[in-house]
Structure formats: C-alpha cells, structure tokens
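Final report, closing paragraph on structural work. Over the funding period we assembled a curated collection of sequence-structure pairs, and we close with a single example.
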Amino acid sequence: MLRVNFLERSENHNVFEAKPENIEDIYQFIIENTNELFAVLNKNFKHEFINKSAYLKVLGYTEEDIIGKRPRDFVHPDDITLAVSAIKGGLISGDVTRKFRIKHKQGHYIWLEAKANLFKQKNGEFKIIFISRDITKSIQIEESEVKFRSLFEHSPYLILLLDASGRFVSLNRTALKYLKFGKDQLIGKHFRDIEILNQDDMKILESKFKDFLMKGSFSPFEFKLKQNSLNLYWVSIQANRVAIGEKQFVEIMIEDISRRKKAEVLLKQSEAKFRHLFDKSPFGIMIFDSKGNLISTNSTLIKKFSTLSPNDIVGKSFIDIIKLLKNSDELLKLFMKRYKAIRKGKIDGSIEFKIIKSDDTIIWFYWESSIVDIDDERYYQVILQDITEKKLSEVKFRESEAKFRNIIENTKEAIVIVGLEGKIKYVSPQLSRILKGRIINSTSRLFEYIHEEDVQQLKDFYIDVLKKKFNFDNVLEFRILTLENEYIWISSVSKNYFDDKGNIIGFISTIKEISDRKLAELRLKDSETKYRLITENANDLIRVLNKDFEIEFLNEATHETVLGYSKEELLNKQDIYFNHPDDYRNINRFMMKVFKTGEGFHESRLKHKNGNYIWFEVKIRCFKDEQGQQKYLLVYRDINERKKTEQKLKESEEMFRIVYENAPTAIVLTDEKGFILEQNQASEKIFGFRADEIIGRKFQDFDVFTLDQIQLIKNTYYALLKGIKAKPRDLMIKKRDGSVAWINWQISILKQNELNLIETIAHDITKEKKAQLVIEKENEKLLELNKMKNELVSRVSHELKTPLNSIYGGAQILLNLHKNEISAEALEFVEMIYKGGSRLKKLVENLLDISIIESNYLVLDLKEHDISKIIKECVEDIMYFAREREIEISLHILENIICKIDKLRIEQVITNLLSNAIKNTPPKGSVKVALSQDEDNVFMSVQDTGVGLTLGEMDRLFSKFGKIERYGQRMNVDIEGTGLGLFISKEIIDLHKGSISVESEGKNRGSIFTVRLNKSFESN
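Its predicted structure, as stored:
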C-alpha cells in the first residue's frame, strides 16, 4: 500500500513524499505513471498485465480491450514479422529492439519502439515482459530532417555558409564537388585565403561582401571560379542573410553559368545556334523591344506558365503580361519602378519574386535583366530562373532548426555539453527526469552523486579527454544517485563539440538510463551457465549452423547417444549430408521458406553412425550473432516411433470404411436436431430400415423408440454436452416388421467443423437377453465352484508349504554349514534344490496371499511407522542382489516420514519393486529410490534405467500372472518370475486406500513405479 503525504507547494513544483510499504508498490506506482507501455505476456503470447494509464493515454485502449489478446492483433499487417521477432528474439538474446506500428483505438497507427525479455516467476513459471514507447514524433522528425538534408546536399547550386568575418562554416556536396577541395581544407578558413578567384574578382567579391554586411544588399556577380587552382568556369553568385539561433550568417549561393556564357559567345557566331540555345535554355528568357512589347520567349518560360501559350503573350506589353497573373497587383508594385528604369537604360539589380498562375500554382523566380543593342536597335532581355525548390529548401532549413531544438528538448535521452575546462555548459531537461527530479547545472558537483565504484573510470575519462582535447565516441556506463536516493545505471556516449569556426571547445554527451538492460545482462550472465547445462543434457539434438550451413555447435553427449557420432565427426561438416538423400529436395524447398519467414519446422531422416536412418522433427530459426553473422539454430526431436505409428494408422485408416460398413454393430450418425445423416449395413439388419428410407429424416419419425426412450436419448445428449459420460443402456425396441428386439445402446458426441454430431452404437442383444436367465442360474453355480477353487488352492498351498520349507531349509543348511564337506558334483545338485525350493516357496507364498486376498480374509495390522527407515532396511536386505548384478542404488528420501501402515505388507511391496527394478536393469545400470510427502499423502518412487515398457505391457502389468516375457531380447536381464508380485502389491496398496502406477517412455528407456499412501487412512 502507498501512503502519500502532501507538503507545502514551492514556487515551481508540487512536491509530495511517497512512503511505500514495500518495493512492489514503488514499481507499481512507477509503471502506472510512466509514458512507456509495459505488458506481461504468458507462454501463449497473450496479455496478462498492462499499465492501464499508459495504454489508455498512448493507444486509447482500456484493460478490457487488451487482456487475453495477442500483441499481433494490434500490429500493422506489414509490421507483424518485426513485432514477432521482437518477442521471440528477446527470448533468445534477451535484448532485441524493433520499431513497428500499432493501431490506435481511433483507427490510426502510431510508431512504437519495443523490446521483449524473458523472466521467471517465483513459482517457476516463465513470462515475457514487453516494453515499448511512442516514437511517432521522432520518426516524423527523422523523415523531415532526411528530406531537408537531401535538398541541401543535392541542390544544383553551390551553397556556402559563412560567418560575419567571411570564414567558411558549412558547404554542401555540390560545392565540394565543384571546388575540388576537401571539407577539412575549407571549414574555418576565410574565403580570401582560398585560391578560387583571380585577384581582380576577389577584390570585387570582398567589396560586395562588406557592402552586403553594411547595407544588406548583394547584386549578382559573375566571375571565373577556379577548381582547386586548375580549371576555370563561369559562375553567378548571390547572397542572403541567415539567422541560426542568435548568430547571423551569410548564405552564398553560386550558380554555374559556364554554359550560359558559352552560349552567349556561340549566339554571336550563329543565329541558328542562338535560337536553339535560346529555346533550350534552362532559364526562362523574355526579349522586349524598345517600346516594352514582348517579341520573343523560349519554351522553358512557356513550360513554367503551363496555362499560357506563346500566342497569349508575344506582342503584348510587359504590363499586360503581368496582368494575366492572379497576383498582378502585387507584381506591378514590385516591377513598375524597375520597368521604368530599364526603359531609361538603367539596370536596377536582380530580385526574387513569386507568381500565382491561373491554376493557383505558386512559382518563385530569380529575375535578371539586361540591355542589348543590336544594329542600333535597343532590346531588353529578362532571364527568369525557377528558384521554387530553393525557396522551399530555405523554409525547410528554418523549420529544421526549430525541429532540432524541439528534438533535443523532447527526446528520451538527455544532452550534456562540457567544456574543455571541465565545466558544464548545457544540460537538457531530460536529465532531471532521468534522475527523478535532481537538478544538474553548471554549479553542480557531479561526482558527489556517482557510485563510489564508478568514480575512478569517470575521472580517468575526463583527465584523458581534457589532456588530449579530443574524444572518439567514448561509451561510459556508470551508476548515479537519483533524488529518491536510489542508484540507476546510466549510459553516456560522448563526441567532440565544435565552435562556429570548427575548433574543438568541449564534448557533447548523450545520456540515457540503462537500468533494465544492466539487470537483464546480470540475469543473462547467471542463466548462461544454466542454459549450457540444459543444452548438454537435453534429449533433443541441438545444432547451430553458420552461413555456409556447416555445423559449428552441437550438444555433444546427446548426439553421441542418439546418432553415435563424436563431436569431431560432425563439426564443420555440411548439415544436409547427414540427411537421407531422398529428403534433400524437400529440405531445400523448406529452407527457401525459412529464408523468407526466419523460422519453421519440417520432418526429415538423419543417418545413424551404424547406417540406419532415424526420423526427426526439425525446428529451425534464423538469427544473427554479435558480429552480425547469419546463423541457424536447429532442434531435432526423435519421432521415429511416431512415424511408425502414423504408418500403421494410415494402413488402418484405409480399412476403416470396410470395417464400418461390415461391422456387426449398428452405427447411426445424426445431427443435433435428430436428422439421420448416415447408417451402416448392420443398422438395416437390426432396425429393418434401408438407408434411403431414413437418411434426411428425424429418428423420432419412426415407431422404433417409445416416448420415454426418446426423452432418455435427449437427456443423455444434454448430459454429454455438460461432460457427463453416458453409460450403455439396454432398450427394448420395435423393428420395422413389428417384432420386438433388445439392443444395447450408447451414444457419443463427435466434433466436425465446430458442429456436434451424435454417434449411436447399438448391439442386438435379443439372444443375450433370452439367455440371461440361464446365465444367472449358471453364475450361481460358478460362484460356488470359484469358492471351492479358492479353498482348494489355499489347502493345497498350506499342504505344500510344510514339505517345501523342509526342502528349502535343508538345502540352505547344507550350503551354509556343510558346503566344504560336499563333493562338487553333489554341491551342484544341492544348489539346484535350493534355487528350485526358493522359487516354489515364493510361488506358494504368493498363491496363499492371493487366496487370502480373493477370499477377503486379509486384515491389515496398522501402526504408525517411519517409512524412510523401512525403505533403508529393504535396500540393505536386497543390496547383495544389486551388487551381484552390478546395479547402483541411490536414495533420495526425506527423513522421519510417519504414516499408519501394515509394516510387513509395505515391506513386501517395497522389496518386490526393488527386486523387479534390479532384475529388469542390465548390468552397470542404476536404480533411484525417492521418498517425499505433501499435506495429505506420502509418495515413494523406484526408478530404473532398465528395459522399459510399452503401453500394452503397462496395461497388463498389474494383472494376475501379468508377467512380461523377455525371451530372445538379449538384454542380460533376469527373466524368472511368476507375474504375481505386482498383482499382490497392487492389492496391498489398494487395501491401504492408496495407489500404485508405472511410467515409461518406451523400450530401453527405463521405468518409474510410484506408490501413493494416504496419511489419514483408517482401516474399515
């Protein structure tokens, strides 16, 4: 529970003090008040928990909208693969971040950056934590910035940014390409120090630059520009003022006019060439006569005025042409003074202006005018350069500066700028949020808050950087104390910080919290050893292939056990060549799909070292290691037994229809409303109706069942829907010919395409019913005979026991006391008598026990005993047998477990289980005995590494004379026994109101026998 005490309100903050009862409340409070989205997924990748306030704020969803659903239900269809890889990749590497789009409740999509991690709860259950944050604004800003940078760098103009002193601050790629200089050769240098103009042009440029700084005007200037002191080409230069922050800069835009200059020369040489160049010029050109009427224009200008044709403007005056435009009033004010000056032979400089065409399209132009005298005639030339893109670039440039500041102030990471003297110059507000309210500024003593174990590395870093006055993208990770007096992990990436002249004046650091990542790294480090242990002890084959599909990792022990190969025989070999040749084609097709989806599974055969092939189910997943190399994880699961079973099922399935049609039992299939869908041939014999007479009709329409029987059928169906198992019933029915017959009737429900189908099975038991009376009478006679049989077995067993004890005891005395006095030949016969007597004695004892059990004469002598002590005594008694067969017995039992039992009978059960385990385990094997308890029960298990059991063998194991024969199997196990021991053991445990069961994974995989005894058991 979280208690909150409100304190006095300060000038800038509402301060409150939180006193949590426990740490979980803090985590809950933080999670519910953060802007990040937290979700916990179960093993089915469905939401179990979300921080409700964040989901409602960011995505608009309530808890009811999310819980129980998968993340992919909300992901943009194009991004599902990215979202799934974030989760599954997190399960493998522990730190995989992806960006994808999530649908908002209102229907639009927002961008999230997300990652997933696997964690283990206290109860041992694994969950997935899924953390994401809204990065929509960042994505939009990044896209805008990319566009702006592209316009700047790829502009056809040479764009130079100078400071007020005339030193280079920045250049675009076009400028660097034309000038043939490297960026480091220009940044920080004055333009007069760069040999790109001759001396006369440089003086003009310096004069214009000074006038521009004083007056703010810069008339276009043409000169020859040198390319790294080599080539010369004509350019036109213009300048603009640019404000970046509080500083003023000069933007120089240089246009390559070499072509135009060359065209002017060529125009004087040839009128044909002049007309061609005039018409194909990249600039719009207009030529007016001395009266101000347009006499010629080129196609470039006409294209810009796509709504006008040459006939619309040629022959018209300059003023009439302007009036054709929507913003004619604005343009007339701008041009009238210049127009009059040109008419007087004066050129009033260049200008930039916009026009609005009739279709509302806006185009920006750069205007240049000149006077041309040809054959005593005066003409006025106007050149219009389309600078629309340039204008848009300038707007985007100004917007980008604001966006950059907005990004810095609003990004999740904090920005800190430190001067070379070691003082903090700038701290973005994010740092205070990261430090839970702690304020860091230029007067802060930062090292006071650094964890003492991390202080030295930071001091070493600062000393090194301040000494060298240079930094190479150093990454530091350290702990810092928040205002809430808790340490969090911080990651700091530092780069050089330059002034406007390109000099290093400090370094700029990007800071973000990495507490979650560090915690995950520690957990990953702890679990890495466990994962390797699990891998090496897994039953499945695990391989990692490199990009060339060569095996570079495998779980050695499992491969050697399952396939017989050593590690050296497999490493660096092509994986596919261990598969069956007939599977190569399917494997290649499967891998093509894996390349697209990143994962999948298929079935193929692997070659054992002995030459046999084993079927495996193969799961594969693509991933990249820390070096970015493509890898493939393959997990092979043995499905050889399943494949054999499937083959048998396939063969039996082909016979199903024949068996169904020829079954002696009537089988009728109906839907939920009682309409008959199908019947077999036996149904016609039992009920008397042909299939074509009844299919499609309700079974109630036939006078077969009484009303009470129909209601019984319906009630049985409704009970089945509730999970109540239906019992077979004997019903008397009326056949089509009116005769009466008895059937044994039962129904079951079959699911088909989400519909319930009712299967009715009926046996004709008319003859059985007639014979029932006879059977009942005969049964009374059989019961009497069974009683006589039990008495006979008991009496014979008792009669045999006395002489057998004498034979067995005499042989035992001879072997123990007089062994050295007997000849070798006689000793062999005595041993035969002893062994035979021992087996007969055991058989007689078992027969007597069965006789007592079946006669209900066995009475338990119940007392409280320490079962752990009884187990130890039984193990000690049978240890000689284990040593003889070289079997290791290990005990894993709790001490002092008290339970009310019949000590003699429980000893009989334990000894029987131990004896069976030793006999059925080949030499060098092991037997594990375990004992545990819960509140109500005691559990004892005997586990061996022996020959194992099939399902069929387990079904008959506890039956009378249920011995499993091992003849001819060459397993080196003891095959002697009567098959009565487990039957008697089960009866003893049943009398204790307990249970005994067996588990086995199949042949040669050992067995586990488990006994459960009820602590609160009281005998009747």
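Residues 284 and 301 are 4 Å apart (CA to CA). The chain has a mean pLDDT of 79. We thank the funder for supporting this effort.
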